Amino acid sequence: MRSKIILIVSLIVLALGVTACGSGALAQVEQPEARTIQVTGRSQIFTTPDIARITVGVRTEGDEAAEALTRNNSAAQQVIDMIVEIGVEERDIQTTNFSIYLRYDYDERGRPQSSTYVVENMVSVTVRELDILGDMLDQVVASGANAIHGIQFEVDDKTAALAEARIEAVEDARVQAEQLAQAAGVTLGVVRSITTQTSYPSPVYLEQMRMDVAAEAGVPISQGQVSVSMEVTVIYEIR
Q: Would you give the DSSP letter of residue 205?
């Protein structure tokens, strides 16, 4: 008798579980899928740069590695001393490359004829007073720098530009969504999601210079403007 009671109770519990599962599945099927509209808003903010980054250095050659290294060390130190003297703080000078390698010279048949040791010492310099940039280029060339790879103008603190770009990009997305909703005869609802993508302009470099030009001629520098671009993808509900 007890076994029959346990069996009956088990069957009732199983039936209730199946009924619950069935009700949940039915509820999921009956729940309407939210209708949405997706738009992408864009903005571009232009601002005046307040810092410049420049890579300068010294490249020396010699028949012996020690000879090339000694001359390079002396010239590189002179360049760094000049950069500090003209007003750049030491914290804004960072070594980015130091290398010693053996370069082979080949004849027309590809056979090695001679070899030369090459030493390179490059530093990245952040210039925070742009009015000294032209003079600095003159002075580093005069002090021994024979490699300048480029100048990149930037905004040191992009917080304000980014905030403005976000606001304008979201507003652009909202205007697009309202136009599309009106054209489709629906009403714009709440925002379901927002994703952002920020992009900065590719660095604008001065053409790599040959250092056999006269250092007396002042280097003309035009900083122009830099931009911050923002892209937001917004999904709205529509009714």
A: P
